[in-house]
Amino acid sequence: MTKRPLPIALLLAAWMCWPGAGSSSGPVAGAAPPAAPAEDPAIHARLAAGEVVARETSGDPQGGSARMQVLVHAPARAVWDVIVSCELAFRFVEGLQSCEVLEDTGDRALVHQVVDRGWLMPRLDFTFESLRQRWDRIDFRLVEGNLKAMDGSWRFQETADGTLVDYEMRLRPQAPAPAFLVRRNISRTMPDLLACVRGLAEGSGTNGVSRPQDLARCAK
User: Fold this and answer.
1) What CA–CA distance (Å, rounded) separates 96 from 43?
2) Does a structural domain hold residue 4?
3) What's the total number of domains in the chain?
4) Nearest CA to 170 among 12, 28, 53, 55?
5) Residue 23, Ramachandran bin (φ over 0: left; ψ between -120 and 50: alpha; else beta)
6) 44-95: per-residue pLDDT in tens?
7) What is the pTM of this model?
8) Residue 161: which domain range?
């Protein structure tokens, strides 16, 4: 394991959504609009109360997609530092075995990672490219590995209430997956991951959910 900070976004996506979670629709890398505050007062209230809100999810035997938002009561930089840390990833990514930076120019990185969650899930071994706009967004795409396709983005927007984190990705596994597994992985793993990231960024806030509650949802 390398201690060097690296963009971990694709690993998160692969782990949490196997065998199917991803971006909402259309190309993601370099094309998605900026994350926007929740226009719907009901959604805004859910975010302010500490809930991880699913904006779009879908799944089928060919893969799937997901987009979720969470409000973090911390600067965007604090959230970014958690997401790009290989060391902290072992806290919020279950089954992370290794991560190696193959190339890093600051705004672009090439990373090889391995995730193994045991006999229930295939072992993931892949390399991805990550394009970064510091404190603003991270776009990622699969370069090679035992997946058919995977891409998505992390986006960060500082608001009066904190940083709105908008995470979306699309994934297609090599083998068909039962629809119930797709739904289960989206509904159970992605919210825990985002809550853990919020806790590690010390952004749980004083209303709704406490930091110990967020950290209790971490993998380790």
Assistant:
1) 32
2) no
3) 1
4) 28
5) beta
6) 999 999 999 998 877 666 667 789 999 999 999 999 999 988 888 888 877 8
7) 0.81
8) 9-215
